Amino acid sequence: MKKPQAGLNIFQKLLLVLLLVTLIPLITLWYVNGKQARSDMDAHIASTMIATANTIETGIVAWDNTNIRALRQIGRIDDMTSMQAEKQNPILKSLTETYEYSFLSLTIGLNGENVGRSDDKPTTYYGERGYVQSILKGAPIAREVLLSKTTGKPSYVLAEPIRKSHGELAGIIVMVMNLTDVSKAVMDTKLGETGYAILLDPSNKVIAHGRSEKVKTALQDFSNHPALGMDSASDRPVQYKDSDKNMLTFKRKLPQGWTLIVEQDYDEAYASIKKMEAEARYLILITIALVFGIAYFVGKQLTRPINELTAIAAELSSGKFDVEIPQTKRSDEIGALASAIERMGISIQMAMDRLRKKSAE
Question: Where in the numbering of this chain does the HAMP domain appear (predicted)?
Answer without folding.
Answer: 300-353
